[in-house]
Design goal:
Number of strands: 8
GO molecular function, one term: metal ion binding
Number of helices: 5
Pfam family, one: Isochorismatase
Protein name: nicotinamidase
Distance between the termini: 9 Å
Number of domains: 1
Radius of gyration: 15 Å
Order of helices and strands: EHHEEEEHEHEHE
Strand order of the largest sheet: 3-2-1-6-7-8
CATH class: Alpha Beta
Helix content: 10-25%
CATH topology: Rossmann fold
CATH superfamily: Isochorismatase-like
Shape: globular
Structural class: alpha/beta
Bound molecules: pyrazine-2-carboxylic acid, zinc ion
InterPro entries: Isochorismatase-like_dom (IPR000868), Isochorismatase-like_sf (IPR036380), Isochorismatase_Nicotinamidase (IPR052347)
Family: Belongs to the isochorismatase family.
Length: 197
């Protein structure tokens, strides 16, 4: 179990049906097997008074993020559909838990802290950094899906923004589009100064 306190935020990344459910459009192998581990971390975080943040990929029906529109991925997490909903076994957000929706404007939303226009490359901050600073958070614990995409980019951004950061490896799973992507993501997180546990 990670160390939690009031200056720590747990970032629960993209535990949505399309990634975590075997019938999801971009199912990450084993994505459903980590939900119990994630729920344990959520409970520990709440008990210690940590902020629990949930993120959701939330794409329009057409976006250069999708292969059919020139991007890299099968259609997934279309805003308002079953695939974009949080997995039903995941402990639900509470009223005051921040929920960050990424990619609603058609951007790539790999990091919980920033979105990026896949065509121009322009990057824009989400509201997360401000929310965490307002709450006095200095430390983040990152888990969820996918290890080599959104968990990785969220972890690297957290370090870039100066948060002490832990990545809970056994509460993540990689897409492994290329074999070894997951391991390379953990290495990049370590190199950026995150503790990989
Ligand atoms: C993700 C691929 C495309 C993720 C999001 O949440 O890791 N992966 N969009
Ligand atoms: Zn996406």
């Amino acid at each position: 179990m990670s160390r939690y306190d009031e200056t720590t935020a747990l970032l629960v990344v993209d535990v949505q049906n399309d990634f975590a459910h075997p019938e999801g459009n971009l199912y990450v192998p084993g994505g459903d097997a980590i939900i119990e581990r994630i729920n344990e971390e959520i409970e520990a975080a709440r008990r210690a008074g940590s902020t629990v943040v949930y993120t959701q990929d939330a794409h329009p029906e057409a976006t250069p993020h999708f292969a059919k529109d020139g991007g890299s991925w099968p259609v997934h997490c279309v805003d308002g559909t079953w695939g974009a909903e949080l997995h039903p076994d995941l402990t639900s957000p509470r009223e005051d838990d921040p929920v960050i929706r990424k990619g609603t404007g058609g951007e790539d939303g790999y990091s919980a802290f920033s979105v990026r226009d896949p065509e121009s490359g322009d990057s824009d901050a989400t509201e997360l950094d401000r929310i965490l600073r307002d709450r006095g958070v200095r430390r983040t614990v990152v888990l969820g899906l996918a290890q080599d995409v959104c968990v990785k980019d969220t972890t690297l951004d957290a370090r870039r923004l100066g948060y002490e950061t832990e990545l809970v490896a056994d509460a993540t799973r990689p897409v492994d589009l290329q074999p070894g992507d997951g391991d390379r993501a953990l290495e990049a997180a370590r190199e950026a100064g995150a503790v990989v546990r």
